[in-house]
């Protein structure tokens, strides 16, 4: 092996492994796909295993996404046996949907939940090229300052709990290729990696080579930017934790006076951390902007509904609570006027006037009534008779709210599902005034 390849990779790996506390329980677990990078790491770990007394095993996840997936598994098994490396194999099922990459990622997380404990260390073979791709991909897709941190050499995951190390994150891709070639070690090639139709492949094949041809130190500079961003992120998070602790009244409520003293950037970060902690929610910029507007509004009393949560701003606090379907049963309600209707369980039916759509105003003249959904209802629309169950399944309403959806009736005939559909004969024509009916569920 050359000094420029194998020795450099080994030094990097030894530096990483030296940080492990050998007196602690737990094993080193290598994620081994059979590709170039993980195969090189597997070979080097196998060489060092006895010398360093490494409690080591490898895990191969068979996704079945490639026609050659079985060949990959066969080669990994052959090499593991030749290198005396303990190997465990997991077969996972991934569908053919457009989101199969997300499905594969979730499947891998499920495997790690089975394989790893909090004392284990998962080893990944990401290199400097992967780091550059990740950072550029985030920049072009759109990211905040935290996204500039890209991947870390060492991370601690909480769900499932384990540590993750990337010993070669600062090593160039070519160094790994050279090592394998000098050792005459075969690896598996993912044919999809050659297609520039995928964003990361496009960066790898079309963009990064041009950048590096003009600026040879580009990868090193991107790596330095990521490391500096992680340091800054850690410092910012410390400030956020101090302010969040000060503002917290309960897990679901923050003190308004404390929030209003914060600068806008710090306020958004405190709100983001609060939502991540209390709801396990990564908030969008839109949600953060709306919550910031609630906090900074000159008067109290505002509220916001967002994906099953109701956020309320009072004089003293900003709080959230789940919007849920009430289990309360209530009798049929008469709706005699074209105005909002408060339901017995605390929910509300609200009207939005529109021209050329929605429920005709004449529905109220015909004795409009509101009933709780019972099951088995059908609605006559222009496209035929449709089951309410199917219409609700096709809507955006979550399952836990569909069961208590209030329905609109005239003379015992179903004429409307709030926010979903209207009967054909009571649907406002192109030149008619109509009303969209919106249901605001009760808050638990």
| Helical segment count | 14
The CATH superfamily of the largest domain turns out to be HUPs
Number of strands: 22
Helix-strand makeup class: alpha+beta
What count of domains describes the coordinates? 3
* Helix percentage: 40-55%
In the CATH hierarchy, what is the architecture of the largest domain at level 2?
A: 3-Layer(aba) Sandwich
Q: What would the principal axes of the Cα set say about the shape?
A: elongated
Q: What are the low-pLDDT stretches, counting only 5+ consecutive residues below 50? A: none
Give the biggest beta sheet: 6 strands, mixed
- Report the average pLDDT across residues: 89
Question: Please, could you describe this protein's structure?
Answer:
The chain is of the alpha+beta class. It folds into three domains: 3-215, Rossmann fold (3-Layer(aba) Sandwich), CATH 3.40.50.620; 251-322, Uridine Diphospho-n-acetylenolpyruvylglucosamine Reductase, domain 3; 333-440, no CATH class. It has helices at residues 3-17, 36-49, 69-82, 100-115, 128-141, 173-183, 199-214, 218-247, 256-260, 264-279, 285-296, 362-365, 388-394, 399-402, and strands spanning 28-31, 56-62, 87-91, 121-123, 154-158, 161-165, 248-250, 253-255, 303-306, 309-313, 317-322, 333-334, 341-342, 348-355, 359-360, 368-372, 378-381, 384-387, 406-410, 413-417, 421-422, 433-440. Strands 3-2-1-4-6-5 form a six-stranded mixed β-sheet, sandwiched between helices. It has a five-stranded antiparallel β-sheet with strand order 7-8-11-10-9. Strand 13 (341-342) and strand 14 form a beta hairpin.
């Amino acid at each position: 092996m050359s000094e420029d390849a194998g020795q450099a990779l080994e030094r990097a790996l030894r530096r990483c492994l030296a940080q492990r506390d050998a007196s602690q329980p737990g094993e080193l677990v290598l994620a081994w796909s059979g590709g170039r990078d993980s195969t090189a790491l597997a070979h080097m770990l196998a060489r060092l295993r006895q010398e360093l007394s490494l409690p080591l095993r490898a895990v191969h996840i068979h996704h079945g996404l490639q026609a050659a997936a079985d060949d990959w598994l066969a080669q990994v098994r052959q090499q593991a046996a030749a290198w005396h490396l303990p190997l465990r194999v997991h077969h996972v099922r991934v569908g053919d949907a457009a989101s199969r990459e997300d499905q594969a990622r979730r499947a891998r997380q499920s495997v790690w939940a089975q394989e790893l404990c909090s004392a284990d260390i998962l080893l990944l073979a990401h290199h400097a090229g992967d780091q550059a791709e990740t950072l550029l991909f985030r920049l072009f897709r759109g990211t905040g300052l935290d996204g500039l941190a890209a991947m870390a050499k060492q991370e601690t995951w909480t769900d499932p709990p384990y540590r993750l190390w990337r010993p070669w994150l600062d090593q160039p891709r070519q160094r790994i290729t050279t090592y394998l070639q000098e050792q005459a070690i075969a690896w598996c090639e993912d044919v999809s990696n050659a297609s520039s139709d995928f964003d990361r492949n496009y960066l790898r094949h079309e963009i990064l080579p041009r950048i590096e041809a003009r600026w040879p130190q580009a990868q090193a500079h991107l790596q330095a930017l990521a490391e500096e961003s992680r340091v800054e992120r850690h410092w910012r998070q410390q400030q956020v934790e101090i302010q969040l602790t000060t503002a917290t009244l309960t897990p679901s409520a923050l003190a308004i006076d404390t929030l209003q003293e914060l600068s806008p950037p710090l306020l958004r970060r405190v709100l983001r951390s609060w939502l991540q902690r209390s709801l396990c929610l990564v908030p969008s910029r839109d949600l953060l902007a709306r919550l910031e507007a609630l906090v900074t509004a000159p008067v109290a009393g505002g509220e916001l509904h967002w994906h099953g949560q109701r956020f309320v701003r009072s004089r003293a606090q900003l709080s959230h609570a789940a919007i849920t379907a009430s289990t309360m049963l209530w009798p049929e309600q008469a709706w005699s006027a074209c105005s909002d209707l408060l339901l017995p369980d605390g929910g509300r039916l609200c009207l939005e006037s529109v021209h050329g759509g929605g429920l005709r105003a004449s529905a109220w003249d015909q004795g409009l009534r509101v009933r709780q959904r019972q099951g088995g209802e059908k609605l006559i629309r222009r496209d035929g008779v449709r089951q309410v169950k199917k219409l609700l399944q096709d809507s955006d309403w979550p399952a836990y709210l569909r069961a208590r959806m209030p329905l609109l009736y005239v003379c015992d005939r179903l004429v409307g599902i709030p926010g979903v559909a209207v009967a054909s004969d009571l649907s406002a024509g192109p030149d008619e005034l109509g009303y969209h009916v919106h249901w605001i569920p009760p808050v638990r």
